[in-house]
Amino acid sequence: MTTAIDLDKLDLAALLCSRVCHDVISPVGAIVNGLEVLEDEDDPAMKSFALDLIAKSARQASARLQFARLAFGAAGSAGAQIDTGDAEKVARGFIEDDRTSLTWHLPRVLAPKNKVKLLLNLLVVATSTIPRGGRINVEENGAGEEGGFRLTTQGSHSRIPPHLVSLLAGEAQEGGSVDAHAIQPHYAGLLARATGYGISLAHEGDAVTILVGRD
After folding, report:
1. Helix (H, G, I), strand (E, B) or coil at 27
2. Which tens digits make up the pLDDT trace of 5-21?
3. What is the mean pLDDT of the chain?
4. DSSP for 195-212?
5. Eight-state DSSP code of residue 81
């Protein structure tokens, strides 16, 4: 049985902060480990390994923070617009690695802030449908300012995670409570409703489609 999620603003902010911390704690921890190796080791090979680890982890932490700034942050005053080219850049930094690739077929325009935030949050949702990596394709669903998006993922063991659809709809199990893991799809649903878009998901074969359009 599902119930409506009921969070006050303070709880929503706290859970989103927890989500951001969860994303950056791993690379920041790796930087600390690399610095400890540099302090304790005299072996040149180990020092080289530590420097490589620090550099890679610093880039990863930076990419995740830049993504979070647009996907979860204010990114300007109310009514501000975001360049979709900037959105593509932070999305690639956050998503692309040796397992997952991103194909972006959206024109570069200035779009309403919450519409771009919705897209970025749905890209995070899209990664959850391909747990072993794969391809994510982003394209328009209808042209112009009123148009939406179509995100298609393809990969082995593709799936629609349990409760994802209900979380996007603002519903949850067990009395409507959510945790830091569930807050991101719930937030994506909040953005969709705030911007007047509906979200539908379909799973066929090894592909999952997330379709965003006007209600």
Report:
1. helix
2. 888 999 999 999 999 99
3. 92
4. HTEEEEEEEETTEEEEEE
5. E
